[in-house]
Amino acid sequence: MKTIIITRSRKLLAYLIVSHSLTLMTLLSLAGLSWLSLFATLIIIASFIYYAGQHQWLTSQKSVVSINYHGDITWSLHYSDGSQKLRLKLTGSFVTPQLVIVYFNHRYFWQGDVITIIDDAVDIELFRQLRVYLRSPKAFQQ
Questions:
Q1: What is the pTM of this model?
Q2: What are the CA-CA distances from residue 69 to residues 4, 9, 50, 96, 126 (Å)?
Q3: Is residue 113 classed as helix, strand or coil in its secondary structure?
Q4: Cβ-proximal residues to 62 (8 Å cutoff; 6+ apart), any chain
Q5: Are 2 and 132 within 8 A, CB to CB?
Q6: Cα angle vertex 74, ends 84, 91, to 5°?
Q7: How far apart are CA 83 and CA 76, in angstroms?
Q8: Fewer beta carbons within 10 angstroms: which end of the chain, N or C?
Q9: Among residues 110, 121, 120, 115, which one has the least CA distance to residue 134?
């Protein structure tokens, strides 16, 4: 069994700040000052707080703090509140040198889990091994 512990990522924080700031500036330059732009601004700020808490600050109860691969094609996710999801099946992935997005299925399609892992948030050797494994055709055999 391999365990990948996920910590804070500076790259993800920079991405969240830049993307939310650009969205906010674009909105304000297009809409001007109105009640609608004020409402949209509050939604953008709430979005930043939600995603930063979920993925960066790891303060949400459902922030993923570690992933376990059990070798028998099952995975488990461990959350910051101590809960776990066991026996998940890998259904897809997106792999780049700095980013891995892993898709797991669950019983119902709306309960699927998507985990984003950035290279500066995990051990670099485990990240490399995960990338190699996810590029292998064996990763998705049933």
A1: 0.82
A2: 9, 22, 28, 20, 11
A3: strand
A4: 54, 79, 80, 81
A5: no
A6: 100
A7: 11
A8: C
A9: 115
**Cα distances (Å, whole numbers) of residue 8 to 11, 27, 70, 115, 127:** 9, 29, 24, 14, 14
The residue to which tokens 């069994």 are assigned:
1
Residue 16 has which token pair? 């969240």
Eight-class DSSP state of 122: S
Average pLDDT, the chain: 87
pLDDT at 42 over 90: yes
Residue 91 — very low, low, confident or very high, per pLDDT cuts 50/70/90? confident
* Burial state string for 52-74 with b = 16 or more CB within 10 A and e = fewer than 16: bebbbebebeebbebbbbeeeee
Q: In the 3-class helix/strand/coil scheme, how is 62-109 assigned residue by residue?
A: CCEEEEEECCCCCEEEEECCCCEEEEEEEEEEEECCCEEEEEEECCCH
Amino acid letter at 101?
Answer: I
Which residue did the predictor score with more confidence, 12 or 58?
A: 12
φ, ψ (nearest 5 deg) of residue 37: -70, -35
Helix (H) or strand (E) holding 115: strand 113-118
